[in-house]
Amino acid sequence: xxxxxxxxxxxxxxxxxxxxxxxxxxxxxxxxxxxxxxxxxxxxxxxxxxxxxxxxxxxxxxxxxxxxxxxxxxxxxxxxxxxxxxxxxxxxxxxxxxxxxxxxxxxxxxxxxxxxxxxxxxxxxxxxxxxxxxxxxxxxxxxxxxxxxxxxxxxxxxxxxxxxxxxxxxxxxxxxxxxxxxxxxxxxxxxxxxxxxxxxxxxxxxxxxxxxxxxxxxxxxxxxxxxxxxxxxxxxxxxxxxxxxxxxxxxxxxxxxxxxxxxxxxxxxxxxxxxxxxxxxxxxxxxxxxxxxxxxxxxxxxxxxxxxxxxxxxxxxxxxxxxxxxxxxxxxxxxxxxxxxxxxxxxxxxxxxxxxxxxxxxxxxxxxxxxxxxxxxxxxxxxxxxxxxxxxxxxxxxxxxxxxxxxxxxxxxxxxxxxxxxxxxxxxxxxxxxxxxxxxxxxxxxxxxxxxxxxxxxxxxxxxxxxxxxxxxxxxxxxxxxxxxxxxxxxxxxxxxxxxxxxxxxxxxxxxxxxxxxxxxxxxxxxxxxxxxxxxxxxxxxxxxxxxxxxxxxxxxxxxxxxxxxxxxxxxxxxxxxxxxxxxxxxxxxxxxxxxxxxxxxxxxxxxxxxxxxxxxxxxxxxxxxxxxxxxxxxxxxxxxxxxxxxxxxxxxxxxxxxxxxxxxxxxxxxxxxx
Amino acid sequence: xxxxxxxxxxxxxxxxxxxxxxxxxxxxxxxxxxxxxxxxxxxxxxxxxxxxxxxxxxxxxxxxxxxxxxxxxxxxxxxxxxxxxxxxxxxxxxxxxxxxxxxxxxxxxxxxxxxxxxxxxxxxxxxxxxxxxxxxxxxxxxxxxxxxxxxxxxxxxxxxxxxxxxxxxxxxxxxxxxxxxxxxxxxxxxxxxxxxxxxxxxxxxxxxxxxxxxxxxxxxxxxxxxxxxxxxxxxxxxxxxxxxxxxxxxxxxxxxxxxxxxxxxxxxxxxxxxxxxxxxxxxxxxxxxxxxxxxxxxxxxxxxxxxxxxxxxxxxxxxxxxxxxxxxxxxxxxxxxxxxxxxxxxxxxxxxxxxxxxxxxxxxxxxxxxxxxxxxxxxxxxxxxxxxxxxxxxxxxxxxxxxxxxxxxxxxxxxxxxxxxxxxxxxxxxxxxxxxxxxxxxxxxxxxxxxxxxxxxxxxxxxxxxxxxxxxxxxxxxxxxxxxxxxxxxxxxxxxxxxxxxxxxxxxxxxxxxxxxxxxxxxxxxxxxxxxxxxxxxxxxxxxxxxxxxxxxxxxxxxxxxxxxxxxxxxxxxxxxxxxxxxxxxxxxxxxxxxxxxxxxxxxxxxxxxxxxxxxxxxxxxxxxxxxxxxxxxxxxxxxxxxxxxxxxxxxxxxxxxxxxxxxxxxxxxxxxxx
Amino acid sequence: xxxxxxxxxxxxxxxxxxxxxxxxxxxxxxxxxxxxxxxxxxxxxxxxxxxxxxxxxxxxxxxxxxxxxxxxxxxxxxxxxxxxxxxxxxxxxxxxxxxxxxxxxxxxxxxxxxxxxxxxxxxxxxxxxxxxxxxxxxxxxxxxxxxxxxxxxxxxxxxxxxxxxxxxxxxxxxxxxxxxxxxxxxxxxxxxxxxxxxxxxxxxxxxxxxxxxxxxxxxxxxxxxxxxxxxxxxxxxxxxxxxxxxxxxxxxxxxxxxxxxxxxxxxxxxxxxxxxxxxxxxxxxxxxxxxxxxxxxxxxxxxxxxxxxxxxxxxxxxxxxxxxxxxxxxxxxxxxxxxxxxxxxxxxxxxxxxxxxxxxxxxxxxxxxxxxxxxxxxxxxxxxxxxxxxxxxxxxxxxxxxxxxxxxxxxxxxxxxxxxxxxxxxxxxxxxxxxxxxxxxxxxxxxxxxxxxxxxxxxxxxxxxxxxxxxxxxxxxxxxxxxxxxxxxxxxxxxxxxxxxxxxxxxxxxxxxxxxxxxxxxxxxxxxxxxxxxxxxxxxxxxxxxxxxxxxxxxxxxxxxxxxxxxxxxxxxxxxxxxxxxxxxxxxxxxxxxxxxxxxxxxxxxxxxxxxxxxxxxxxxxxxxxxxxxxxxxxxxxxxxxxxxxxxxxxxxxxxxxxxxxxxxxxxxxxxxxx
Lengths: 675, 675, 675
What we know:
Three copies of one chain form a homotrimer. Chain A has 675 residues and is an alpha/beta fold. Helix content of chain A is 29%, strand content 21%. Chains B and C meet through β16 of B and α2 and α4 of C.
């Protein structure tokens, strides 16, 4: 197994974050102090130039890069590398004033006014022309700088545009997709319903807020198009940079599970994936360990987009963020825990937004390493400094990756389709939560699942989990059949296999596309329960588990019934089934149960697959990364109390001692066991 | 008494529903199976052509009716009649593309984009021209078809349009209404308030969301105009059809108590009324019997629009709908109960939306007789099949009608005016609920009230109930006075008789227009209670009942005080009064009590009127239909348990046996007793 | 001390209100009855002409004032004076029809339609031209009328306009403010953040709803500009009136603590301030005494705008209002209490909206002295009549004013900035409530604080309270330092001194601008608690008080620690401090506690300042007004029960007897003790 760190020059884990010296050019004292404090905090890389267009080009055609050159030089001389951003995240006022068509049009058809950020039209030719000039100049000036590590394309891409340009591109996109055959589209979108047939692609409009919203296929394609269009814009920026110097890698920073863009499509164009993590630590609805697990799920989703290499934690905050409903301060130790969770999950970097708090505007109170107070003796600074020191202890982790045997399928268009489906109850669909709860349950058994696309290669895995796997892409039914036939374990739930990629219902029984044969059942009806309604499943072993929200009535053709409903008119009907198919097994859970109540099923599935779990105390997270010669086990104690683990052996790089058997972890402590 | 069934050709109760074969023209196997399955389910009529414009006329001026002809022929040959819809419910894309003025403008002044449905401008000349061509061709091709039963005009009319065309028509409508005298309008709308006087009708605009909303008279006339304009459009469609062949009857399908249109005005233009019923069965806030009663109220409102003939249940669903907040499956038997409730309430039809689920788009999961699974052995199909068989047992019911002696006044413009009134508390006005609760209380005593307009003929009735009868149309005060004087019983509540038809307050004491003389009281103040506030009424018999939300302080001139308030500064003041006026009695209930607490009053009123109630077990509904020679009593058991009724005699057409005294009904069972 | 009544001609307290005879010109019988009933109710002044433009000038250039002349004459002959309004609160339809640019544009960029009220563009030249013609004619016709007392400029100014005219004026306003130096603005608004630098003032737009909302400085200046622009319009009206006759005084009626306009700026242009008071009496969330105290706070804010003279209660309602969520009737006696609270707080008037209820439109149910019933024997009329009689007992109170030694700083732009700050938790910021709760606590000790601006003169005061004093205007840090140094007592809370007037954070520690030296502390972090989170403060005397919402972590340099946190990672850290600075003391309360829990601190502060409190029974309010020779103590019993007060001496003008020691007050009773 090969091991390639994302950044060889860094010589270990990157520690740094966004740095906006352009806000302080009139304060050379502060800029000098920044370098000094960065060194104290163990910062080895900063991100420059995010949102710097108005400084780079204050008037059209007038460019200023000297300041940036000087700062990059200075940083480099002090051992600090640079990630350089393209500034397309926000446009200078002169650009919007002269070229208003660069501004986005919203779903109501109104063109935005200048302001805020992330609101350009992805299709605007003039905007592409202007950003190309800018990016080319940046590349010409800085691509060869010795401190230059990586291009950071734009910032947190998001949103959508309904301008005439984008409408036309949408129509072309559809024509391309449906082979220029409008009847193909009419059939796929079932437009004969409500007299919605189109005679030509030119007649199709996006789902304006006062327009068409009732064609599910159109709604879905609009979302796919927005991803395509945003990706196309990003590719344009990348091509300009590569045209100048091809070998500087590129990334862009994703936002958690942002619903608006299928990040997996964008990831294909990047050299590495990165994301910005802002959990609501210490909130009023869950424990710290639960908050951590949610974040670990996000890490897993991002990581699985480039499974062969580490990813980057591009942004996080050492203190409080400023845009949550409640901006609670991160308690001592929580920062250490979060930073090591990123590394444990496969990140080669720990980065912050931002280095120093600005004095004004929207994010003046967003947490930063350096406060308005400006000193290096604040609690926050000292916690960052400590993380900087600890990361220096684990240089060999860089470049290692996890190797997981269980995968959960989580598709962006499945999210969109479930969300848009006129069925069930809008209030309780909870697709993402359903996935996360099941994922957490595996984590608690010490088994970390990857979170993959249905288009991914299934061959590295022994177990596939399919929660609410509503949309079946072409060929996926056959892929699953093949996976099970060859010995794989599959577990699917209610609301699986109802529609094809265009959201047309399968005829002849759900789950469709051959899956009812694999599972040996057909779902005849799906009942939606009110929040106060309850049913239950009685398993053959006598165990009874509560059912909420959804329950399907199954016709069982040739499956084993593992559990039946307790009450209502479908009492005694099958609720959980298992079918041996080929060399493998196919489990079907026809109703919503708590993930904890599904644990026995998961244990059985893992056991079938020969995967050993781990006996973890509550609140302790466990991850493993594998390298060319060594592997690293990570233990994170989010339980809030001291924990003693047994059966651990190897060298704890954090505690700097050999462990053989017993590992004691204080609250918020972490251990990295080298093997 | 004459007895005329709505559809002689059907020879009994119609059973059928919406059928959209145009979605399956590429699947002749499915079309063939449909006929076969319809016959199995006892379907004798289907509704064709709803939303079929894009299939009828795929390009402007290019018409295709062969497919429809073939299907109508085929259905007819198999004993299945057709209700044919005009397709104005949604426009084809080519029409909106070429004639955007056919699309509606919303209250913010924005023209809609193409899409969805029910969004045409009612005034658009080009839209009228295009639909006239279409309707004429439909009539020419199908009016004489032997299977043709009825025209179904458009579909679920609704909404409103603020386009320049409609604004102009609104101004003309007002000029007409106020005799082209702007000062008449100024006085009626009290426009001197806030300097709102108009100099000409041209200055008046509809209540745009960013315009005038503070003239109550204008708001009300805009709603009246919208009804007028929608009716005018409907009349246009009807006139085109009648021009080709005058004797095919017409209807359109109403939506429950839809607030946007005064259905009573529209009903005048129709040969029979029909509506679409979608109760939220088995919800989390009430019992099945309560849900049923709400639906029975809706039946009563619709029925009372054409009291001399049966109505139609045009749409209902055998399974789950797909657009409720929670789309729960209809439990076994509930379908039977709902279908027989329609017939019991006066419907000659039981129809569904729809026959077969489409594969895609907005209603792909709306319940249907035939599921995506496509077989005739599903639970739902079998329940429909059973209803089909049972309906065949009661052919003589067709054409019979109820004859009720109690009426509740429920005016559309009273709803609008109460809703818009800047008084009381928006949150607790609950006009409709107040009416329904009182109506239910009568039903529980086995006495079904009609639900009529204040413009209706009062002479068939002995009792009039006036809940929150806020608006008095011209002459209604005198009509009520006359009704009581001649021996009628009237019971009114708080918030009665405050304003005239233009919403000007009566001077000299509420209730105005002579009613304070009839009731012998004047309401000096009305108190609005917070939801946690309580008062109570102590009746002369010592009974004490809780008061919530509203309480009027009465000046009693010459009425008997039946109850007084218990607390607050109006403790001891009159809360419930009775006055003998002429040969009748006038009761006034000055505060909001639970309808159940008003039962004693209702009993007294019925007793005064010589109307005998019935001792019904909880959860059992009772209706009667009268024919030329026979009458039919309906018993519906929505109690959830087996019920034994006594005092029943006659032939139970469902159970097919003579009943003399005791009738046993299983849960969800129905009995139809012929007398 | 000089004593000048606002209106010498009135000879005591004014009693009256809005009167709209123009709605009844066709009913001379009603107009005659009005005069007769006014006299019975002790009305000595009415407000005419509010919203009368369409009657004054029914068509452009056609003026009618005869009716008004006749009514003013008639009133005057009956001893009733007139306050005359300019009618700019709403425009006639002909004006908007011909000059649509007079109508406002909203934040989404849409021009309003004609209608409603208070929706003119403050910058529109044509609107200014038209209102100038009108105002000049009113002045020419009525300024010399013997019954004329005061100009009432427009009505309840409010709202904002985003039209091109206003945008241009905003840009000019900014250019003026920032010395035509765009870089000055760029620095003040920290525009380098997110690439928001402007190259010229022309590029700046207001915060459109689909535009820039992320520059805090811009948001704040937009609000300041709106106040400036509205004031400029008001000054225009005043200048026209003064041009005709300079010595008629002017006012306009404010709306409570209306957030949209900094009333203190407007007040500078007025001869006296007046406001409209509509508390939600008898609501479900607080006692009557609490509702009264909230209203007293509003009186204090308004009064402090012109501390050297009385103010006016321009509008209030004797019964129920019609636009509250719940329009509950005012209970007997509450009206008396409210009227005397106004006078006790420093008002020389008790006025109502309105005299007689109109028959139609938006406010037909708004409480009035005369109901639709039209008689003088209603409960409401009789309560008004009683107040009229009681006010006649205290003529000498007119012109007296309070003299308070405690002041709370409450700045409009502090409200705006806190509200807009991206920090803390939107849901729990509660700036106004925090101020009111503290103010109430002083009131309960018999000490009424003024509520002043940070730009006010601090010299009349011994104690300054600074709750959440986030924004420091230029020089205010020094002013406070000076105040304390010279012996003043200051008490500030968390979230104080974070930013300067442009909302740039102070560097080097909060509170900035020298205040950390005064308090001897620096706030290093501020924690935002979830609503269910709790901490506590343990005071040195052992008392423990609950902490919610916010808690700062202090670095104490040279202050005495009065209390420390109990739990969490900042347990044992300082929560409340005190520093002797110069001759005075500076207290800092770093966290949110209930105002009742801060009482000990307040007692200490008052004691330091030598201010004696009063031992008041719960629910009794106490105010004092001082005149040239006499002072008047007001006792208001809002406790709901009979109260016996001790230590009272002087003549009770209401009870008309000498009190020496014991004063007994019935529920809702008031006493005015002359000394």
